[in-house]
Structure prediction request, 187 residues.
Amino acid sequence: MLFVDLVTEQPKTKVQLENENKNTSLPSSWTDETLATLGVARVTSTPAPEVGEYQVAIKDGVEKVNEVWAEKWSVKPMFAEYTDDTRGTVSVEMQIAEYEADKLAKVREDMVVSMRQCRLALLADGTLANVDVAIASLPEPDKSAAQVEWEYAATVQRTSTFVASLGAAIGYDDAKMDALFEAAADL
Prediction:
């Protein structure tokens, strides 16, 4: 629970108030009388505001709204330009690109479909027949590993080396492979 010092209007936690009043015997449950003795009021929790893309909501003190003390929020940009000793100036655009790449990598890690779904999606896309030709064109030992994966795997993971090598061999770029997995997940 959060409180506000009525003199300074600064937020304080129960632990902070207990530490500031070590010589005072405080009850385990604080009543309005206890709060008055300490010169504080309860702060009402408020939900974080809606934020836009590349923004964050951060708690920014307290404020009095309609005679009730409440948490105050600020919306700030998620990224700001800074200088790094190894990379030099890191722009907002660079940070956004890295953030989006990390987000996409996490989405891809969760893209797992059954072999049945994979084959049906390739069939619907008209490329199922190309898989055997693509596997046959791979050099050893990749060819044998891909053959085992294709024939015996129960699931197919988007981030596997099998998918990367096979996708390139049948002419799929990353966007097309993502779309294939999304379509397969619905089958």
